Amino acid sequence: MRAPLHPALGSAPTETPRQPARQLRRSCLCAGAIVAAILLFPLDFAIGINASPSLPERVFLIRKGTLPAAGEFVAFRWAGGGPYRAGVTFVKILAGVPGDTVTRTDREFFVNARAVGTAKRVSRTGTPLEPGPIGILPPDRYYVRAPHPDSLDSRYALTGWIAREQIIGRAYALF
Predict the structure, then answer these.
(1) Residue 166, phi then psi, degrees to nearest 5
(2) Which residues, including other chains, have CB under 8 Å from residue 93's CB and lie 6 or more apart?
(3) pTM for the complete prediction?
(4) How many other C-beta atoms can be found within 10 angstroms of the C-beta atom of residue 107?
(5) CA 144 to CA 156: how far, in whole Å?
(6) For the range 10-16, what are the long-range contacts, defined as Cβ-Cβ under 8 Å and sequence gap of 24 or more?
(7) Enclosing H/E stretch for 143
(8) CA distance 44 to 23
(9) What are phi and psi for residue 119, nearest 5 degrees?
(10) Furthest-apart CA pair in the chain: how many Å?
(11) What stretches in the chain show pLDDT beneath 70?
C-alpha cells in the first residue's frame, strides 16, 4: 500500500515540514526566557552584540560582575583608541589571567607556551599595528583573544592587557 501524497509537497508526508516550526517555537521560547531574565534581573544581565567577524557568535548574554575563567568568553569595556570610542562593549575569549606568562616570537603570541595568535603588521585599512605587551600578567590584568586574524585583541598595543575594572562579566554565546 502506498502512502498518500502530501498536498503541498506532492510527496509522501515527512517530519521535515514540522522541524522549522519547532525550531522557531524553541527559538522564540529561548528568546522570551532571556528577555524575561533581563527584565526581572536588569542589574545582573545584559545583552552583547558582536558586530565584527572576530568571533563566530554574534549575540551574547552577559552575566555582570562574574569573572570568567581562562577559555571562557569575557565582556569588557573598550578603553578607547583606534576605530572605537571608549566604553564600547567587546566580547573576546579570556586567554591569560594574572600570573600567566605572555611571550612573543616574531609576531606569534603565546600564553604559558600555548599559541594564541599572530599579530599582523598592518590593519585591513593599512594602519601600522604595534605588537602588544609581553611578560607576566600582573594582578588585575588579563590577556584576551579571538580566533579571527583581524581581531583587535591583546596581540596589539592598542588593546594591550585588559584591566579588571574594564571587565563587565562573563559572556555566554547565544547565537
Answers:
(1) -80, -20
(2) 55, 71, 72, 73, 74, 144, 145, 146, 147
(3) 0.77
(4) 13
(5) 10
(6) none
(7) strand 141-145
(8) 28
(9) -80, 135
(10) 75
(11) 1-18, 30, 33-34, 36-42
The 10s digit of each residue's pLDDT in 37-64 is: 666 656 788 888 888 888 888 889 999 9
Strand pairing category for 59-64 and 45-49 = antiparallel
C-alpha cell of residue 43? 542589574
Decide: 91 and 73 in contact? Cβ < 8 Å.
yes
Give the C-alpha distances (Å, rounded to integers) separating 60 from 37, 90, 132.
Answer: 14, 11, 26
* Cell numbers placing 51: 558586530
Which grid coordinates are listed for 78?
573598550
Q: Which three cell numbers stand for residue 52?
A: 565584527
- Please tell me the distance from the alpha carbon of residue 141 to that of residue 163, in angstroms, as a whole number: 5
